[in-house]
Amino acid sequence: MMTNARSCVAVTLFLLVGWLGVERPMLQAEDWARFRGPRGNGSSTDASVPTQWSDSQNLKWKLRLPGAGFSSPIVVGDRVFVTAYSGSRNRVKRHLVCVDRATGVAVWTRVIDGVGDGGDRGPANHGQASHTPVSDGERVYAMFGSSGLVAFDMKGEQLWQRKLGNERAARFGTASSPILHQDHVIVTAGAESESIRALDKKTGKEVWKTEASSLSGTYSTPLMVTNSQGVDELLLSVTYELWSLNPGSGKLNWYAETEVDTAACPSLIAQEGIAYVIGGRRGGRAAVRIAGKGDVTESGVVWSTSGGAYVPSPVLHNGHLYWINDNGIASCVDASTGDQVARKRLGGRFYASVTLINDKLYAVNRSGKTHVLKATPEFEQIALNTLTDSSEFCGSPAVSNGQLYLRSDEFLYCIETP
Question: H-type helices in 125-236, by residue range?
Fold first, then answer.
């Protein structure tokens, strides 16, 4: 019965996606095929994901990776993909690893050589394998900084590679993950060439390119939304502004001023015609209506104030925005007003974004401890899980069909209730 139910769901989704004119032939309803999941909002309704695990409990498998990385795993059908890097700052090897999700065995690994993109922090921190790959079910697209965007088929054959610049102007390297829209791969190459581009996903040919100096300070992954008129818009957070671009041409639709200063790292969330943005070294947050042309700061900004997170992205649940900032402080904000409802110190440091699974928040700190909290302003702790791993955990979790995937600088983990 379960198999039949899933088949019906998959057929329904396939027909709906085909009717919308979007080619996603092999993706399944459970897939987590891009950064922050299928909707780009870091949420899943999978109630079967365990809340407790350890080295001896609910650990299906773990796989040693060829190197470190800030990127997150993605899940496509029976495969898991993750990037990593090895080597020195002047000669970096970037790896794309394909893993059998049932066994945890690496099916294939591909290596792209290049120069390190770590800025003045060196290769041990940012830029070497910070971009999360994306897949349409037929191909996997991996961004590797100055080595460019590379497309592989599901068997690991390289289809094309497109260099996007080698300026490495940003202090902390590069991080924005590629996304897919119709026949295009859209990628922010802020550190590489102060640009955002759309490439033909089959050939790698450039479709459009938009350049702006402020893109050098954005590490945020773009978000595709559909406005109230049924028109797609590409949203991107940059320093001090939220942009809406035409995904077919790259031209600016509108922009609004925000308090996201210094660098724009967290990804956006959108719901019911409102985009929510947080970010900046000192931290700012804002809610902006998805509508208008030109400067919509006065007409479109619902609220804007200080306070946010520098790196981790938020989630939205029952009218509240939740995030864990870099210093381990959990925040709950009223999405309608921007007012802070609650704060709680969890401790530790965080780069991974909080993930909403059903009605629970999963927050992984850099030492590998995962707080499982109720998604309510009280932040009631359900569990605190630890794995024996001395390396850092900087990638965000992936969720698929009852399984939770975590990555550290040494291992990829699959968590599942037996």
Answer: 190-193
